Amino acid sequence: MNHPIVVLIIVGICLYLVFIFQRWRRNQPPAVVQKTLTRYGIYFAIGLVIILAATGRLHWLFALIVSVFSALIPLVRRFLPLIIRYLPFLAGLYRQAQAAKSTNGPTQGQTSSVETEFLRMTLDHDSGEMDGEILKGVFQGKRLTQLSQQQLNSIMLECQHDADSVALLEAFLDRYFGPEWRTEKDYRKGNENEYADKEMSNIEAYEILGLNSDATEQEIIAAHRRLIAKYHPDKGGSNYLAMKINQAKDILLKNTP
To answer: Is 158 within a domain?
Structure first.
């Protein structure tokens, strides 16, 4: 077969695979995409090593590794004295950065939770990521990041009667799938405030801000500042989450001596 034709066929196959992958990726949560890419990346690396070994070309790979290390050794020798010289200065900068981070709210894995009839959503203070456990229905026990967009849409139909559950699920879909998941017929339109007047207990407020019941006023304000910065509608959050975070802060500050 003519060489250019072979190249065109290979390019066509690659483009088709990329198209299939993009189509699949749009309907999957980021956690699933990352896990799948990691798994198949490992498979590809193992397969490449096996093919090179079977065809007697494995020495090419070792030659590449040796050449990379050979190129890095002179650079390391050149810059190592500078690194050692400025190490105390760099260590000081690192300590200052850690102190600034601590002042602005380092959370060391701190999380918050918001629970509704259908969902228990967990909010990560550091990364701003969110995930949720499904509490009832067909997908009970599953996590939102384990499901495709079609499956999440079916959960939306299940919990339509519960405005809080719908609002949480909307926040998750908006964050991970963008506004494209919404249809022109938005059953929430005009009803954004139907959950605004629901009462919140102190226990729920502490859970939303990720605090213990002995939190001080400063800790409440700091937790609120961290969360609202990550889950504000302008930052990929939602009106519902912002409302719950603000409501939790107001309740706790009112009841904190």
So the answer is: yes
170-183, pLDDT tens digit by residue? 888 888 887 777 76
pLDDT tens, 56-85?
A: 777 777 777 778 878 888 877 777 777 777
Return d(Cα 244, Cα 233) in angstroms, integer. Answer: 12
- What is the number of structural domains in the chain? 1
Is 251 within the bounds of a domain? yes
Q: Is the pLDDT of residue 130 over 80?
A: yes
Q: The domain spanning residue 224 has which CATH number?
A: 1.10.287.110
From CA 161, how far away is CA 139, in angstroms rounded? Answer: 17
Q: Is the pLDDT of residue 52 over 80?
A: no
In the sheet that holds 111-115, the strands lie side by side as: 111-115, 119-124, 130-134
